[in-house]
Amino acid sequence: MKNTARLIAILSLSASVASCCQAPKSEGPVYLDDSQPIEARVEDALSRMTLEEKVKVIHAQSKFSSAGVPRLGIPELWTTDGPHGIRPEVLWDEWDQAGWTNDSCVAFPALTCLAATWNEDMSALYGKSIGEEARFREKDILLGPGVNIYRTPLNGRNFEYMGEDPYLASKMVVPYVQEVQKNGVAVCVKHYALNNQESKRHEYDAVVDDRTLYEIYLPAFKAAVQEGGAWSIMGAYNFYKGQHACHNEYLLNDILKGEWGFDGVVISDWGGTHETDQAITNGLDLEFGTWTDGLTMGATNGYDAYYLADPYLEKLRNGTASEDVLNDKVRRVLRLMFRTAMNNDKPAGSMCSPEHYDAARKIAGEGIVLLKNDNDVLPIDLSSAGKIAVIGENAIKMMTVGGGSSSLKVQHECTPLEGLIAAAGDRIVYERGYVGDVSGSYNGVVTGQDLSESRSEEQLIADAVALAKTADAVIFVGGLNKASHQDCEDSDRYHLELPYAQDKVIEALAEANPNLAVVIISGNAVAMPWIDNVNAVVEGWYIGSQMGHALADVLFGKVNPSGKLPFTFPAKLEDNGAHALNAYDPADLSVEYKEGIYVGYRWAEKQNIKPLFAFGHGLSYTDFTYGDAECAKASVKAGSNVIVSVDVTNSGKVAGKEVVQLYIGDDESSVDRPVKELKGFRKISLEPGETKTVTFTIEPDMLKYFDAAKHEWVLENGKFTAYVGSASDDIRTTVQFEVR
Predict the structure, then answer these.
(1) Which residues partner with 626 through β-bridges?
(2) In 69, 99, 583, 648, which residue has its Cα 20 to 30 A from 6's Cα atom?
(3) Measured between alpha carbons, how far is 297 from 460 in angstroms, rounded to an integer?
(4) 332 DSSP 8-state letter
(5) Are strands 677-686 and 656-666 parallel, antiparallel or unpaired?
């Protein structure tokens, strides 16, 4: 139905406005075709709209759409959940799926995996692919990507984001945004801002100083806007400075639209709007999800009862609200419409194509992280391996269903066991080992898997150990899942430890067979009390439709792992800054970010804490040797770039990719600053024996800190150190330079 309505709207654009001779303010030029500037077309459309029509386009008309102006041939806007795949169609006023048979999708890896590629080309491929799927499904707005910073490993929604470091997230979000929008589909970057936990997410007030806000929690959003050109932003649920983030004067008007010059649309998260006056004045443009069912509000349609609907219209009619403010909102929505729904130059898009499955597999392969590999347990050589025991529920459990709004209905999902069997055949033998979450449905999407189990915990472990003792190699596939209080929207984890007695299983397997590789499926760090007894550990993430194939590629050596952690794995929860300072409590309604700028590796280095696995860590099946870093000039004038270069050689026996990381430390700062901060990275591919020179350009802005008193970024004179290495805790070479 939507496609037909859209076609009629597009075909009638040229005629409908011109023919509306009875329409208010119909005089003036008609700017409808793409040869005219968008701003002229926006102003022309705005001049022809009635007050009622203006209000109609700034709030929802259904669960996932907002109204157009049929009289003027302006089509409605359609949104869809992402950011890992295109959500199935839902009923007009409900969350449950509509029962279509042609709305399955490709599930791409979760954004933690994308960030773990440390490869901007992979981000571009991701954006292009998911943008094509959204375009094919006639979606105008993709509700993603997410770039909230990883503050605590208990946050249930961390798997949807890009890690703990603002620089990494900033660099990885931009290509995603640009490539999605080339399809005529707007991204909606979320959740702006300070949505760093799911507990009490509608109620807690984030208490954050300005320096921390600007240095840690805003840069990725700023990059998405100013470098990526994002067309829409989603407000967060939480409070900040006593105001909801979806209508927040400081975040939306002062920073986003004021300092950053954002010309797009601020969209509320579903249920994130709470009051008409603040929604009018504090920067919200398009309201969604205030009621859960638009048809049960009594005599008045539920959507007309929205805060930016009839209550706003009444204020406009009685003169207590300014039409100038309304016009700014409508201009933004019209601008978005011309960029998306009324963009006649959009490509056709594609859905579930071989290219998209290939992209999902490639991105997953580059994001999988080899955390430990003593005694070269991995890769498993299929030319000589005999029986391979695969153990663990996550080897068979579908992970694309559940977890909240990112839940998908996939055309196909290759589980780890299926992928390993496809690669190794009947050498693979399976045992479950533990029972975790046996559910398999979300909003009417059902996996169809029967995960029921009658054996006791003790028997499951005994059967797994018996199999492991007879195998040449053992692969345990465990971790978290998308159940509540694991990696799931609307709930945080209770603890850092693995659930379902998995630690017992792993300990028993390690004792039974030294050729054990543990694969963790998760979007979060987990505790590993067994780490000294296990030779190989892999972080496998939630990697979507091609999960099994991508894992098999890495475990059997078809793909040399090159992923690097986008966040720190603490050895224990108290090694995380927010938890060390008792600055996270799921019951708190006022959450003070006491750790300030010391998030992730910044905190670990400040406190001299050895993490379980450091930010940026990731091994390879080959070795890389670094030469001495060189700086083109040891002393530069303020305002000049600094050039740092280093030679990197593949000193191993197989081809591989290395992420060369650049960190900067301010050695003579007058204010407290981290030991070092990520300011550059390059992913390079090297054949055995090959050497490449990696060059970094350090711009003046990269050396600044935010002075909250002056409300400006400050560059101080003095000495700085460039740290170049393979991880934040694996610095291979340093070079010092001075800014005068």
Answers:
(1) 648
(2) 99
(3) 51
(4) H
(5) antiparallel
Using CA of residue 202, residue 207, residue 213, residue 217, what is the dihedral sign? negative
Cα gap 566→617, rounded to integer Å: 8
Q: Quick one: three-class SS letters along 236-278?
A: CCCEECCEEHHHCHHHHHHHHHHHCCCCCEEECCCCCCCCHHH
The structure tokens 């299983």 sit at 505
Q: Which amino acid type is present at position 488?
A: C
pLDDT score for 292:
62
Structural contact between residues 582 and 694, judged by C-beta atoms closer than 8 angstroms: no
The pLDDT assigned to 597 comes to 98
Is residue 166 within a helix (H) or strand (E), and if so which, with residue range?
Answer: helix 166-181
Q: Specify the DSSP element, H or E, that contains 65.
A: strand 65-66
User: What tokens were used for 730?
Assistant: 């694996």
Distances from the Cα of 406 to the Cαs of 63, 86, 98, in angstroms?
Answer: 16, 9, 17
Q: Which of 684, 628, 624, 614 is nearest to 654 (CA)?
A: 624
What residues contact 510, with CB distance under 8 A and at least 6 apart?
516, 530, 533, 534
The number of residues making up the chain comes to: 740
Report whether 233 contacts 192 (CB < 8 A). Answer: yes
Contact criterion met (CB below 8 Å) for 395 and 415: yes
Taking a C-beta distance cutoff of 8 angstroms, is the pair 98, 89 a contact? Answer: yes
The helix (H) or strand (E) run that includes residue 548 is: helix 547-555
- List helix spans (H) across 426-540: 457-469, 502-512
Whole-number Å distance between alpha carbons of 308 and 292: 16
Residue that has been written with the tokens 């153990």 in this structure: 391
Nearest to 117, CA basis, from 356, 369, 358: 369
| Residues 6 or more apart in contact with residue 366 via CB below 8 angstroms | 117, 119, 122, 562, 563, 657
pLDDT at 294: 58
Q: Phi/psi of residue 476, each to 5°?
A: -95, 125
State the catalytic residue, choosing from 44, 205, 269, 437. 269
Strands 590-592 and 205-207: parallel
Residues ≥6 apart with Cβ < 8 Å to 70: 9
Pair 293, 93: CB distance under 8 Å: yes
Q: How far apart are CA 153 and CA 209, in angstroms?
A: 22
pLDDT for 24 equals 45
CA torsion sign for 572, 575, 578, 581 is positive
CA distances from 453 to 508, 618, 620 (A): 20, 36, 37
What is the rounded distance in angstroms from the CA atom of residue 148 to the CA atom of residue 79? 21
Mean pLDDT by 10 residues, the chain (740 residues): 42 36 43 77 95 98 96 96 95 89 97 98 98 98 98 98 98 98 98 98 98 99 98 98 98 98 98 97 97 58 90 98 98 98 94 98 98 98 96 98 96 98 98 97 94 98 98 98 97 98 98 98 98 98 98 98 98 98 97 98 98 99 98 87 97 98 98 98 98 97 98 97 98 96
Give residue 6's pLDDT. 43
Residue 339 vs residues 34, 74, 131, 141, 262: alpha-carbon distances, Å: 10, 12, 14, 10, 15
The angle formed by the CA atoms of residues 680, 171 and 591, to the nearest 5 degrees, is 100
**Measured between alpha carbons, how far apart are the two ends of the chain, in Å?**
65
Q: Is the CB of residue 266 less than 8 Å from the CB of residue 256?
A: yes
- Phi, psi of 267, deg, nearest 5: -110, 135
For residue 597, give the amino acid letter.
I
135-157 core/surface letters (b: 16 or more CB in 10 A; e: else): bbbbbbbbbbbbbbbbbbbbbbb
φ, ψ at 524 (rounded to 5°): -145, 160
Would you say the C-alpha torsion 226, 228, 234, 235 has a positive or negative sign? negative
Q: What are the tens digits of pLDDT across the range 301-313?
A: 689 999 999 999 9
| 269 is an active site residue | yes
